[in-house]
Amino acid sequence: MKLSHRITHLTPSGSDGWDIFYKARAMVAAGQDVIELTIGEHDIRTHPDILAAMHTSAIGGHTGYAAIPGTPALRKAVADRIQTRTGVPTAADNILITPGGQAALLATHTAVLNPDDTALFIDPYYATYPGTIRAAGGIPQAIQASPATGFQPRATDIARQAVNAKSLLINTPNNPTGAVYSRNTLQDIADTCIKHDLWLISDEVYDTQLWDGSPHISPRSLPDMADRTLVIGSMSKSHAMTGSRIGWVCGPEHVIQHLGNLATHATYGVPGYIQDAATFALDQGTPLETEISAPFARRRAITETLLARQNVVKASPISGAMYVMLDVRATGLSGFDFADALLNTHHIATMPGESFGTSAAGHIRVAMTIKDATYETALQTLLDFATIKAA
Description:
The protein is an alpha/beta fold. The chain has two domains: 5-45 and 287-390, Aspartate Aminotransferase, domain 1, CATH 3.90.1150.10; 64-284, Type I PLP-dependent aspartate aminotransferase-like (Major domain) (Aspartate Aminotransferase, domain 2, 3-Layer(aba) Sandwich). Helices cover 43% and strands 14% of the residues. It has helices at residues 5-8, 19-29, 48-59, 72-86, 100-112, 129-135, 155-162, 183-196, 235-238, 253-266, 272-283, 286-307, 335-346, 372-390; strands at 35-36, 95-98, 118-123, 139-144, 165-171, 199-203, 229-234, 247-250, 314-315, 323-327, 348-349, 351-352, 363-367. The strands form three sheets. It has a seven-stranded mixed β-sheet with strand order 2-8-7-6-5-3-4, with helices on both faces. A four-stranded antiparallel β-sheet has the order 9-10-13-12. It has a two-stranded parallel sheet with strand order 1-11. Helix 3 packs across helix 11 and helix 4 (72-86) packs parallel to helix 11 (272-283). The longest helix is centred in the C-terminal third of the chain and has 22 residues, at 286-307.
């Protein structure tokens, strides 16, 4: 008996890019101390008040089947947040609640792709992107973004590959690079999507994590883009609710209706008590979001201070998200070999740039997700290790 080609070829290379992470977790399981700078998991847990709201809802009986598009209260809260942040008129009918941002990524690609349609995405990319496109029946095609441009994609590169494509997936603020796409970059992307009739899928789960003072720009807010943009959002990063698995899609009403039909056949909704907790969290407004993002702003400052004291490791602009992409090519090592050697010698785990495509080869991604003092010590050890390797 054979499995489907679709399921067996989600990661045709045989690796999903997480080899160093798995190795580090195996070391931890074996009783070794490892400092993990790998995944985007907050070092703080979900706020107690959010958990209290979840508990109250569950005890109150909201444990049965919940409305599949999402509870009216949560859909309205998400729509209000988006309208306030972007200025684009947004109603509850523009929102589908999903079991996390990952489910939203799969749903949106399923909505816009027919079998064997080409779906574009930017390299470097979050590790699940190509497999998500394959799971939806599409053919993933990467567009390179260079470290020389701060990993800002160029319209000419997108346009070159847009012929016969059906969709483009972008992510800003960006995981893994920390890049925040400029207004010019986003306008170029919008113009290209309009010219080549592409759906734009905009992963905006890091929209509360911007460090240069610039506001978040959603491409849905650009002229003529609201009807061709599907926005992915999540409570995971903005509210430290990673394990709650609560996200959304924002898009044209007719698309959301079809996605609701898909949810009926795929997930059958999200638990009501989790939706109630998310509604409570959003009702707290920006003060809570600022509290959740504050540790990463501090660690960004620590990173920039330590980097300024040496000249071997360079960083891409740390403009947003909870990561920093470090260029370690001066050591003569690939990103994978550097990360592997660092783990073996100092028990510090990072993600090789090669885990996220080819454009970040010779880089490593560091997640700023541990306590400040431990983070500072680990980063200094990393920089000292790089200096020795480069000598």
